[in-house]
Design brief:
241 residues; 10 helices; mainly alpha
């Protein structure tokens, strides 16, 4: 499938999927979040009471044991957007090479790229300063929302989409997963869902983000990725149980 055909297929899916009630609700929630996120960020940026409350929360969180701080620093390195961005690009390229399905690759690319694009656009608009903590003072890029958390959401969403596409391909060839394989898939899904939460906690332990920074990234990134998937996924993938 060439790029033009893939684009037409994505637009066709958009028209078909957008009329489904559950997807319509998801799109409404995503649109509401996109509309509200910049005003929310600006309000938090200029609110002295919110700043005091969040700094008090960070002061408690930063009492974490030394090993948790060290682990958080490792997570910060692994989930840096400049590290995981190329990794996700390779994963999308591998999906295209193995499946020879341009529409599937476009879907995967949108799921991974859109949360990051939205996050960094909001960062540049809001320009909230980092928390006044030792490590927060060293970070010069804007704080709201968290880029690391958005990257974690994007990576988990991308891997979940790839898993679903593999399941669709196996079902199309009449291949059934063993009970052990099904349990392994369920465990992996739980891990992928929890990883963004772990990354969010690590950013608070390091004191480089406010709690509202990471919470906003978790919610906004998840909504954007889910909407991108529902609007661009191939029809056979959407039907996989």
């Amino acid at each position: 499938m060439n790029t033009l055909n893939a684009s037409n297929a994505v637009l066709g899916n958009l028209r078909r999927h957008a009329v489904r009630p559950a997807i319509r609700l998801l799109l409404i929630a995503t649109l509401a979040a996109l509309i509200a996120v910049v005003p929310l960020g600006l309000m938090l940026k200029h609110s002295a009471s919110d700043y005091a409350a969040e700094m008090a929360m960070l002061a408690e969180i930063q009492r974490a044991p030394t090993w948790l701080v060290a682990a958080s620093q490792g997570i910060a390195t692994i989930y840096a957007p400049l590290v995981m961005g190329p990794v996700m690009a390779v994963l999308v390229g591998a999906l295209l090479w193995r499946s020879r399905n341009m529409q599937a690759a476009v879907c995967a690319a949108l799921v991974a790229a859109l949360p990051l694009a939205v996050t960094f656009a909001v960062k540049l608009i809001v320009r909230r300063n980092r928390p006044a903590t030792p490590l927060g003072a060293l970070a010069h890029d804007p704080s709201f929302p968290s880029g690391h958390v958005a990257t974690a959401v994007a990576l988990s969403a991308l891997l979940l989409v790839i898993m679903r596409m593999r399941a669709s391909a196996r079902a199309a060839h009449g291949v059934e997963s063993s009970s052990r394989g099904q349990w392994a898939a369920k465990i992996l899904i739980v891990i992928l869902v929890l990883l963004p939460l772990v990354v969010a906690a690590s950013r608070l332990i390091l004191g480089v983000h406010y709690p509202t920074d990471v919470l906003t990234s978790l919610v906004l990134g998840s909504l954007v990725s889910a909407s991108a998937y529902c609007l661009s996924a191939p029809e056979d993938v959407m039907q996989v149980a």
